[in-house]
């Protein structure tokens, strides 16, 4: 018996779910999306991400479980599929206690804890001795993480899905029923999976009022410091942060950033860009030649993406609208890659439950 599955959305959430589901030949998967890899648009978060694995889920939460579950598949891709565009990187995390309670500090609260839960998940975890800390840092850690070149990884996921028989089409949907009727076989879908991220008020439909954008501005440069570095906050504003990560296979280095809630401005702010670059060189002088300032950065482009946050966390649950069975998998904030496999595996479990309860054909 075959299962007709429609996935709405081709960001990292939709593509990881499609990748897992298409591995079972019984699943006939159609992926429908307004934006596909290769597009750069403010409504499409995935291409803008760094992206790396810096766990932020609260200890004991489902978020922690999703991030924990995602480490092994990312590590395996690194080791066995270099064509996926993911590599290992040394990672340094610095904490300033004074950032506690700020927007940036709240985001990084678990990441910067001494002895955090993820110390047993990532390899080579080590607490930095006081002698390796600057006087303005209260504690720090080092471990091995990964950085994903999203410009390679998203198309790689599509390639794997297509190899497994999945069909990709550009479409914009206003109504759930339309998506259910758009399966490539012409038959009605048994289940529609909603991986639409932040979606948009202009796209129509009911916007989940728990969703909100957290704006992230980045600078992409050719410089390569040879390690990833992040700090819990800055003195430039409570919703500004500093992180540096180099993408695999010539992807350039991403320098960030900010976490501006409910700001959807798609244009890079040049003053913020200057602050981002100055801070990056301050914490990671290796980014430029000795004595150089931001003029030593070789800029590829400036960018802005909106992290699809959701009050209460991502929505991964079953639903039914107008007789159409739906599984939601959206609202992954600033952690869509590092929780991608955990969230998509849970989505697949719910899809199986829906398929098990579908009316059997009489043949
Ligand atoms: C600057 C920045 C840095 C980040 N860094 C990291 C990081 O280092 N690590 C990490 O894990 N995460 C990071 N993130 C977060 C990550 O990018 C997001 O969590 C993730 O991309 C969300 O993916 P998604 O698939 O849910 O949504 P999206 O990528 O936004 O995809 C949504 C898809 O749905 C489609 N769609 C929406 N509505 C419709 C409709 N009505 N009809 C048809 N199609 C529709 C869109 O066209 C698109 O294909 C970062 C984000 C930003 C902005
Ligand atoms: C998917 O979720 C969005 C919120 O992001 C909502 O607006 C939309 O109606 C949902 N679509 C489906 C098919 O359930
Ligand atoms: C942004 O909007 C969300 C959802 O409406 C709300 O919960 C949150 O408090 C807002 N944040 C700020 C900083 O205004």
Automatic annotation (TrEMBL):
<dbReference type="InterPro" id="IPR023209">
    <property type="entry name" value="DAO"/>
</dbReference>
<keyword id="KW-0576">Peroxisome</keyword>
<dbReference type="GO" id="GO:0019478">
    <property type="term" value="P:D-amino acid catabolic process"/>
</dbReference>
<feature type="domain" description="FAD dependent oxidoreductase">
    <location>
        <begin position="5"/>
        <end position="349"/>
    </location>
</feature>
<keyword id="KW-0560">Oxidoreductase</keyword>
<feature type="binding site">
    <location>
        <position position="243"/>
    </location>
    <ligand>
        <name>D-dopa</name>
    </ligand>
</feature>
<dbReference type="GO" id="GO:0005782">
    <property type="term" value="C:peroxisomal matrix"/>
</dbReference>
<dbReference type="GO" id="GO:0003884">
    <property type="term" value="F:D-amino-acid oxidase activity"/>
</dbReference>
<dbReference type="Pfam" id="PF01266">
    <property type="entry name" value="DAO"/>
</dbReference>
<dbReference type="InterPro" id="IPR006076">
    <property type="entry name" value="FAD-dep_OxRdtase"/>
</dbReference>
<feature type="binding site">
    <location>
        <position position="334"/>
    </location>
    <ligand>
        <name>D-dopa</name>
    </ligand>
</feature>
<feature type="binding site">
    <location>
        <position position="196"/>
    </location>
    <ligand>
        <name>FAD</name>
    </ligand>
</feature>
<protein>
    <recommendedName>
        <fullName>D-amino-acid oxidase</fullName>
        <ecNumber>1.4.3.3</ecNumber>
    </recommendedName>
</protein>
<keyword id="KW-0274">FAD</keyword>
<keyword id="KW-0285">Flavoprotein</keyword>
<comment type="similarity">
    <text>Belongs to the DAMOX/DASOX family.</text>
</comment>
<dbReference type="GO" id="GO:0071949">
    <property type="term" value="F:FAD binding"/>
</dbReference>
């Amino acid at each position: 018996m075959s299962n007709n599955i429609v996935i709405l959305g081709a960001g990292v959430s939709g593509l990881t779910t499609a990748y897992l589901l298409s591995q079972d030949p019984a699943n006939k998967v159609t992926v429908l999306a307004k934006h596909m890899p290769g597009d750069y648009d403010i409504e499409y978060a995935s291409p803008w991400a760094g992206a790396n694995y810096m766990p932020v889920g609260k200890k004991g939460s489902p978020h922690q479980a999703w991030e924990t579950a995602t480490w092994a598949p990312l590590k395996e891709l690194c080791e066995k599929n270099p064509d996926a565009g993911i590599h290992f990187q040394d990672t340094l995390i610095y904490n300033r206690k004074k950032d506690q309670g700020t927007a940036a500090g709240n985001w990084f609260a678990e990441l910067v804890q001494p002895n955090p839960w993820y110390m047993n998940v990532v390899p080579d975890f080590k607490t930095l001795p006081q002698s390796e800390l600057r006087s303005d840092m209260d504690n720090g850690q080092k471990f091995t993480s990964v950085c994903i070149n999203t410009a390679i990884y998203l198309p790689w996921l599509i390639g794997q899905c297509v190899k497994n028989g999945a069909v990709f089409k550009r479409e914009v949907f206003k109504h759930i029923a339309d998506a259910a009727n758009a399966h490539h076989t012409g038959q009605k879908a048994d289940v529609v999976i909603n991986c639409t991220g932040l979606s948009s008020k202009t796209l129509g439909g009911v916007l989940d009022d728990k969703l909100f954008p957290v704006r992230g501005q980045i600078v992409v440069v050719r410089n390569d410091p040879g390690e990833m570095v992040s700090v819990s906050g800055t003195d430039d504003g409570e919703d500004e942060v500093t992180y540096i990560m180099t993408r695999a296979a010539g992807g350039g280095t991403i320098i960030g950033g900010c976490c501006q809630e409910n700001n959807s401005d798609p244009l890079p702010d040049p003053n913020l860009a200057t602050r981002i670059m100055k801070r990056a060189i301050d914490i990671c002088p290796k980014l430029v030649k000795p004595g150089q300032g931001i003029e030593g950065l070789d800029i590829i482009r400036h960018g802005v993406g909106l992290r699809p946050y959701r009050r209460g966390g991502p929505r991964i649950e079953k639903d039914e609208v107008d007789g159409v069975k739906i599984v939601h998998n959206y609202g992954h904030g600033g952690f869509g890659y590092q929780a991608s496999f955990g969230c998509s595996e849970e989505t697949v479990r719910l899809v199986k439950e829906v398929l098990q309860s579908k009316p059997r054909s009489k043949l």
